[in-house]
Amino acid sequence: MSDWLGPAEWQAVALSLRVSLWATLFSLPFGIFVAYALARWSFPGKQIVNGLVHLPLILPPVVTGYLLLLSFGTRGPIGSFLADWGIVFAFRWSGAALAAAIMAFPLMVRAIRLSIEALDPKLEQAAATLGAAPAWVFLTVTLPMALPGIVAGTILAFAKAMGEFGATITFVSNIPGETRTIPSAIYAFLQVPGGEGAALRLVIVAVVVAMAALLLSEVFARRVAAWVGGQ
Amino acid sequence: MLEVSLKHRFTGFDLDAQFRAPPGVTVLFGRSGSGKTTIINAVAGLLSPDQGRIAAGDWVLLDTKSGLQLRPHRRRIGYIFQEGRLFPHLSVRQNLGYGAWFAPKDAPREDMGRIVDLLGLGALLDRRPGALSGGEKQRVAIGRALLSAPKLILADEPLAALDEARKAEILPYLERLRDEVNIPILYVSHAASEVARLASSVVAIEAGRVVAQGPAAQVLGDPAILPAGAREAGALITARVVRHHDDGLSELEANGIALFLPRLANAPGTQLRLRIAAHDVILSRNRPEGLSALNILPGLVQDIRAGAGPGAIVAIDTAAGRVLARVTRRSALALGLAPGVGVHAIVKSVSVAPADVGGAAAS
Q1: Both B127 and B36 in a single domain?
Q2: At a CB cut-off of 8 Å and minimum separation 6, what does A181 contact?
Q3: I need a labelling partner for B310 at 20 to 30 A (CA). Which of A83, A121, B30, B104 fits?
Q4: Rounded to 5 degrees, what are φ and ψ at B97?
Q5: Which of A115, A119, A129 best probes binding to B when mutated, by most B CB atoms within 10 angstroms?
Q6: What is the pTM assigned to this prediction?
Q7: pLDDT of A135 higher than 90
Q8: B73–A131 CB contact, under 8 Å
Q9: Could you read off the pLDDT of B27-60 as tens digits, one per residue?
C-alpha cells in the first residue's frame, strides 16, 4: 500500500487530513454558536451576519483566498496583529486550515441551523420549568437533540475542507509539505510531464475519502437520529 | 394560598384575571380559547404578562409593579403539559430524574420509588418515550413534574390528548396525587367530568375574565355560570354509602335522602362525590308514581336561566344539595316553574367520583 503512493503523494494525503481535521474541529464551536444565533435570536444586523457566513459559498474561491491574504497576510491588519503574538497563517499549513474552515463554514452552519430550527422549543420550555438554567437547557436538550445536524454538518465540512483548492492556493500558495494538499498536489502533478500517474492516484484517494465521508455521515446520521428520537 | 392577578393584551384578546387557589386542586374551567393556558403559562413564567402579580405568601413569582419576575427555572413549578413534552433522547428513568437533578439540594422532595409505584411506572423505566403509549407518556410526564420538588403543580389539560380509555387509566392516578401529595395543583380543563372528579375549588374563566370562583359544588351548581355551556352542565352532591343490597344496587344517603346506584365497590361509610348531569334530570310538579326511576329528590326551584336555544337550566335546592336540570322553555312554562315552586327532580343516572374530595364537601 505504501509503495502504491510515492512519498510526495503521501505527504499531500497526510497534510490534507491534518488541515481538514483542524479546520473542522476548530470551526465546530463557532458553527454551533452561529447556527444557534441565526436560528433562535433576533438581533440587528442578523441578515448581514447571515450574508457574511454564506459569502464564501457564492464568491469565487480565488476572491475569498485573496481577501484572506489581504487581511491575514503578514502585512494585513489581522495578520500583522497576530504575528506579534507569534501566530502566522500566511504560507503555513495553519493558513490552509483557515482557508478550508472558512470555505466549509457555510455548509456546517446550514446543516446545524436546520436541525436547531426543526427542534421544538416546547421541549426547552419544559426543561426550564424543571429547573434547568438556560445554559443547562442548551447542553442537555438543545445540543443532543440537534446532534444529527451537527454530525452531518461536521462531516460535510470535513469533506469540503478536503477538496478546498482555490482559496487555499491563493492564500497560502502550493508549498510541498506545508500547504500542498491533495487538490494542490493534483494540480501541481498535472503541470509537469509524466505527472499523470501520481495525479490519478491522488484522484482515486480523493474519491475514496469523499465517498467514505458521505457513507459515514449517512450511517452516523441514521444512528444518531435513532438515538435521539429513540424507542 | 396562591394569589394570581394578571393583565395581558393580545391582538384581539384581553386577559384580565384575578383569582386565589387554596390548597388542593383548583381547576381553571372554561371553553377552549378562554385564556386558561395563557394564565398558567404566566404562572410558569413562559409568558410575560403586561401587568400582574403572582405570589403565594412571601414567595413572589411575579410583581410587575416592583419589576420582579423570576425566570421559569427559578420558579420551582412542576408543569404537566397537554402533550407530555418528554425528552425523546432520554430514557424514562432519566426523564423522571431530570427535574430532581436541578432542584435545590435541601428542597423537600418526593421519593423516586414512591412516585414510580404511585404512577405504575416500574416496567417502563428503561424505555424511551418513543416506545410509550399516550397514557404511559402522560404518567411519566406527571411523575417528572412531581419529582422536580415543586412548590406548585400546573397541569394543562393533561388528559385532553387521550381517548376515553386512557383518560380512565390516568384519572385515578391524578386523584391519588391530589390525596397523597401535599402540593397545590392548578389544573386547566374544559371537561366537566374531570372537574367533577378532581376539583376542590373551581375558577370559571370566560373570554379572559374570571366569572366565578369558589368550592366546586358551588360554582358547578350555579346556573348563571355554566362555563362549559348548558350541554355540559351538572351539579355535585356529596353522599355516603349506607349498604349494598343483594339485587345489585348500592344505597347511599345524602343528607337524609336515599339514593340507589348500581353496585359500587366502596365500603359502607365512604363519602362519595356524585355528579348529576343536568340533561339526566327530569322535573315533575307532583311526586311521580308508577315510574321506573329510583332516585327522586324533592326540592324548591331556586332559579331558572333560559339559554339562547329552546332550553333552560333550572336550579333546584334539595335536601341533598343543589341539583341542575336541563328542560325546554316550553316545559318550564307548562309546569309553571318559578323560584320558590316545589318540584321533584327525577334523576336518571349519576356518575360517581370514587374518592372524597377535600374542601369541596363543605358547600
Answers
A1: yes
A2: A12, A15, A16, A19, A96, A162, A164, A165, A168
A3: B30
A4: -85, -10
A5: A129
A6: 0.81
A7: yes
A8: yes
A9: 999 888 888 999 999 999 999 999 999 998 888 9
